[in-house]
Amino acid sequence: xxxxxxxxxxxxxxxxxxxxxxxxxxxxxxxxxxxxxxxxxxxxxxxxxxxxxxxxxxxxxxxxxxxxxxxxxxxxxxxxxxxxxxxxxxxxxxxxxxxxxxxxxxxxxxxxxxxxxxxxxxxxxxxxxxxxxxxxxxxxxxxxxxxxxxxxxxxxxxxxxxxxxxxxxxxxxxxxxxxxxxxxxxxxxxxxxxxxxxxxxxxxxxxxxxxxxxxxxxxxxxxxxxxxxxxxxxxxxxxxxxxxxxxxxxxxxxxxxxxxxxxxxxxxxxxxxxxxxxxxxx
Length: 282
Hints:
About 25% of the residues lie in helices and about 25% in strands. With about 280 residues, the chain is α+β, with helices and mostly antiparallel strands. Strands 1, 2, 3, 4, 5, 14 and 15 form a seven-stranded mixed β-sheet that branches. Helix 4 (about 130-150) packs parallel to helix 5 (about 185-195).
């Protein structure tokens, strides 16, 4: 973390790497070397902790929660400074959230910032996969208010696999019956952030969390963070905004910059998701 006149600058980057070993083979390391990230949140790691240690190097302190099924999901937090505490449990005792929820407390500029790296199920409408997705979102409904109480400087980052509003998906009309844009899924985000049309949407409505990406971009389409491999979705920027940084109001007020690091070309991508990078002045 670097000191500034206004406090301590904290850069948090979050990305679904779609397999961290493949991401590094395809150029993730060069991106990371250039971005001066303080806390790196990864989703869909699909590797062992030793792989993360070898790829990232000794300068990073690594927390990793692997999925129960080998080679699936997996979330991690890597930081320049060691976390003071971390937690991985979410939901009821009989609910398997392994590899999908990892929260940690970091001391930044004399204050504590709580960061959560999360990977919500992709789901599939009308199947058991969608049932598991709703169980996870239900668990988030229970946890998020407690997270706000735990620390007013908290942020939930990651691949949440839901586009909240029509602005978040390029071809939303063709996806209203598809997992990722189902009305039932979007209703959860109404509870997190407030509903579209609510005068307090993204400014105290719902649980009070703030969608940093939407606040920064304004009422515009995108900026998208994931593109299908079908057709020329990336080249045409026919994407989905499903990767978020959702911050408590106190932390959201400290945002100084928001960027989606979309690759310059399809050939230069190292994941099907783009990193979401936010600077906070703590």
